[in-house]
Predict the 3D structure of the following.
Amino acid sequence: MKNKIAFITGVTGQDGAYLSSLLLNKGYEVHGLMRRSSQFNTARLLELCQDPSADERLQLHYGDSTDSMNVFSLIEAIRPDEIYNLAAQSHVSVSFEMPVYTADVNALGTLRILEAVHRAGLTGRTRVYQASTSELFGKVAEVPQKETTPFHPRSPYGVAKLFGYWAVINYRESYQMFASNGILFNHESPYRGETFVTKKVTQAAAGIAYGLQEKVLLGNLDAKRDWGHARDYVEAMWRILQFDRPEDFIIATGEQHSVRELVEEAFRFIGTSIRWEGTGLNEVGIARVPRYQGGGAIPDRTDTEERVVVEISPEFFRPAEVETLLGDSSKARQLLGWEIKTTFQDLVREMMAYDCRVVEEALKR
Ligand code: NAP
Ligand code: F7E
């Protein structure tokens, strides 16, 4: 039987790398859309896909979601069985600074994919997965959020993704395209971008554990998220496209934690606990940790001190915040047989173990 062909936009991102690994293991031929960058941007693929350059089944193509001709030509030439549209300006906070670009990539970028499939005459062949998001729920209308919960996005990112969500449904209804939305709640991993709160906290806690970082500056400690593991979530993406009809699915753990709890869990891993003092912008997190020695020094981890390791900075607050998200993924569990394999504690521990290993290896050099 011929291998299935997948086309992944956003292949260099966290999810793109995990999904490539999953599909290569299933025997797929994987084509990825990759932005040209002044430096190599394939580090995640290299780590997760066991020497992808040696695997002829993984082919990377230069391109950009804002370039209609490029997207169309690639789709027409590759004629994929499945498209996973993961490319996005994915940072909510940055979307307030770059709303027009965010809309071009996240909203029109989705439309470019759908229209390319339609115009290339591939509607009957190609299935499309759209990376929709819990940010659609924004100022939540009910708890937990289900497929039927009304949307109220709170950022240019969320508003742009709302366009993408409805474009998918419109192409499904207009042209009977197999196009589905995965409404994924936050999912993280050791390969998460460094400016998202989970990775920012685990990297900082690892640096603090070795006396190399003094403290971390954060925003809203009381925001609550339903955090899962990216490895579990790319499995859901694949299952959504294997289902017998195109439908939209919530993918979430059904468990919620605050940023404050995330910080506590990360510091627990390095054998200390956080004491919170003060309120609002003056709140701080204090812990007994190895003395801060600055970069370059060989740290003595037995020399500890009690000091402020978390401070609040107005820089990390957003013009409009999504205070709470909690998903109900019963539909995906029942219809797709999808299940959560990684708990919140396991996720934070895996990220901490990875970040501590990175610090140790850097110290050896
Ligand atoms: P990510 O790590 O930020 O990856 C985003 C990917 O999109 C990167 O490969 C990036 O390329 C690429 N990209 C950005 N702008 C592009 C453009 N103009 N043209 C082509 N590619 C472009 O995000 P992720 O966490 O893997 O998320 C994957 C998708 O799921 C995104 O659409 C995101 O919005 C959505 N989502 C994520 C979550 C989550 O919690 N992770 C939850 C719900 C939905 P570079 O490597 O060159 O930057
Ligand atoms: O923020 C709060 C922040 O940036 C989580 C994207 O993948 O998931 C992600 O969006 C929460 C927010 O993720 C800091 O205010 C506090 O309430 O890690 P985040 P996000 O905004 O939830 C959704 C589902 C997506 O679709 C997106 O693509 O943490 N927070 N202090 C902070 N956040 C950041 N980044 N940095 C802080 O210092």
